[in-house]
Design brief:
By secondary structure, the protein is of the alpha/beta class. It has 6 helices and 12 strands.
Length: 244
Amino acid sequence: MSGAPRVFVDCALAAGAEVVLPAVSAHHVRTVLRLARNAELVLLDGHGAVHEAQLTLVSREAVQAVVGPALAVGGESPLDVTLVQSISRGERMDYTLQKAVELGVRHVVPVTSRRTVVKLDSRREDRRLEHWRGVIRHAAEQSERTLLPTLAAVTTLDAWLAAHPTTIAFLLQPGAATPLAREPRPQAAVALLAGPEGGFDAGEVERMLGAGARAVSLGPRVLRTETAALAALAVMQALWGDFA
């Protein structure tokens, strides 16, 4: 089904089953793509299952499809990378998430750190998370991912460090003595720690290093927050992933 729209659904897929598309995907199918009943598409469960499908209902109230045969497709890197990203302003964060998904990230953890400019109360945080989920979902569909990257709740940098004491982590730090490209291939899942607009402060860097993170550089230039993680992901995919 080359060229058929790809849609993630929040349920298990089995040939012959009828599924209701999630609201955000239903809107995209109905309003943006303007697909009608009997149109073909590809459904994904976000965990690797991919199936042909055909729309059976397109209305204001719901969009439904019948699941067809399973498809054997690739699209996933062998690298299991979690992006621990300090929250940046508006479009910068959206851009980082979108491109990180295209570059194969598996998990995203938005964190607050001392120099984080964006301050979210509980109401704004819920809205932001919902928005970011949409960014991730659309990027995964567009880039033909078979896994839907997960988005964790907003947490603090220190809380994440405390909860993941054994995780292999690369701290993206300008001026670090070791370039990322000289690190050995990770033998397990790995995290990238990316700072906010003003970078991590000295105390945070000390705590991350004390927790076992490896400080790595991405060359002699200082990269913006929306660039650093993406450059690191590209380097990792070229060295150890599926860019080679």
